[in-house]
Amino acid sequence: MMPKICLKSILLLIGMLSNASAAFVGINIGTDVSNLPPASEVVAILKTTQTTHVRLFDSDAHMLNALSNTGIEVMVSVTNEEVLGIGESPSAAATWVNRNVAAYLPSTNITAIAVGSEVLTSIPNAAPVLVPAMNYLHKALVAANLNYQIKVSTPQSMDIIARPFPPSTASFNSTWNSTIFQILQFLKNTNSYYMLNAYPYYGYINGNGIFPIDYALFQPLSSVKQIVDPNTLFHYNSMFDAMVDAAYNSMAAFNFSGIPIVVTETGWPWLGGANEPDATAENAETFNNNLIQRVLNDSGPPSQPTFPINTYIYELFNEDKRPGPALERNWGLFYTNGTAVYSLSSSTTGQISGNSSSVFCIAKQGADTNKLQNGLNWACGQGHANCSAIQPGQRCYNPDTLRSHASYAYNDYYQKMHSIGGTCDFGGTATTTTVDPSYGTCIFTGSSNSGSSTIISPTAAFGPTTPSTGESLRIQIPEFGSLILGFIALILLDSLRVA
């Protein structure tokens, strides 16, 4: 006899599986801005651009109030000036949490606290109290029963990684060994994530011509310019991926694994001085549009393909009050009057402009799950896409998500058929991009890393069609979550019969 099952538990599990989060692109909001718009107008821009995640460099009350009831996930920050006091006093940490976090919940969706900004390299004298500050803040969250909702971490720059390339041999600067070990232990113990500030612009500039600019801009590389780690033979299609992998491998050198990385800052300056010729609007537009498409393919870097790279773009407005060279004041996506500095793709639609002749077909972020499944079934069945690479255990199976599998199948079909009329639509669930979606050993057809594709004879249809009544679709790649949900449903129905 089927054992009785708690209906509440089943519905909870169904909810957990159906609400699995996808990768996101958020944005940083700096305040060193002349004529900074009122918080309500800033939030209006965020809503217009459908921004789902923001990082504040402080805990400004006006912004936190304006963000209430928007659903936008908010990362608040302990400023570098506050780190010392909090790191020396548990009561100061508790007061900070009560005043800057608890007071705004639940209407403002605060989900993370960033402790300082690049503390180890910007204020090294605070290093001894950095981890104590993180611990005191976490304990304050535990006391308020908020520790499961809000994560604590600390953003660090790439400068604490002594040799970032090749990524397989990257390691943290030994100067910070003790503090970094404590940070990683804290992140592991609290199930938090490593916050990384990674700027390919600076990696490219400081490389003194070693790397081509296309590599920094997510542009396809010619066969003679491929960037390969000689130890792992991983191909790196972007400096961004290599930087993230360098951080993962640096953590591995301390015997830590399973700590995901969130890129808390990245971007490209759109204007610079006479000695900063690569800081152009064209390059900034290319970088950020390609970054969005890269992040939203839900895959990680070659060494960690199942860990999506959630990322925050630096930044919403130009911080014209910042000191230093001209480029420091020109990273913004918007002017303070709300107009865009340059064209930026939305997260779900639009075609990226680029210099590449290669165009790829990928699944849209947020596409309807049923339509996506139907598109995948059609591509692997009637569309004759070669879906062997996304079978369990094969090179493109991970990440095991419906969107990732659909992207591979859609692209394989599109590369074979677009020259004879095949489209990249799949019931409105697909879009084209010039950003190579390949990662690790998973090379998409049409990539400069792949060989020429074989053209097959056209079928009667050039895109998926709704099957007629009684017609079955060939299910080539069942999604794990769908199978589990189906299994749960069968158990539930059977248990109801028994009852």
TrEMBL record:
Pfam families: Glyco_hydro_17 (PF00332), X8 (PF07983)
BP-aspect Gene Ontology terms: carbohydrate metabolic process; defense response
Entry EC no(s): 3.2.1.39
Catalytic activity: Hydrolysis of (1->3)-beta-D-glucosidic linkages in (1->3)-beta-D-glucans
Species per Swiss-Prot/TrEMBL record: Camellia sinensis (Tea plant)
Membrane-spanning segments: none
Compartments where located: Cell membrane
GO CC terms: plasma membrane; plasmodesma; side of membrane
UniProt membrane topology term: Lipid-anchor; GPI-anchor
Name of the protein this chain belongs to: glucan endo-1,3-beta-D-glucosidase
N-terminal signal peptide: 1-22
Protein keywords: Cell membrane, Disulfide bond, Glycoprotein, Glycosidase, GPI-anchor, Hydrolase, Lipoprotein, Membrane, Plant defense, Signal
Any one GO molecular function term: glucan endo-1,3-beta-D-glucosidase activity
Assigned protein family: Belongs to the glycosyl hydrolase 17 family.
NADP recorded as keyword: no
Keyword Signal: yes
Gene3D superfamilies attached to this UniProt entry: 1.20.58.1040, Glycosidases (3.20.20.80)
UniProt enzyme class: hydrolase
Coiled-coil zones: none
Domain X8 as annotated: residue spans: 359-444
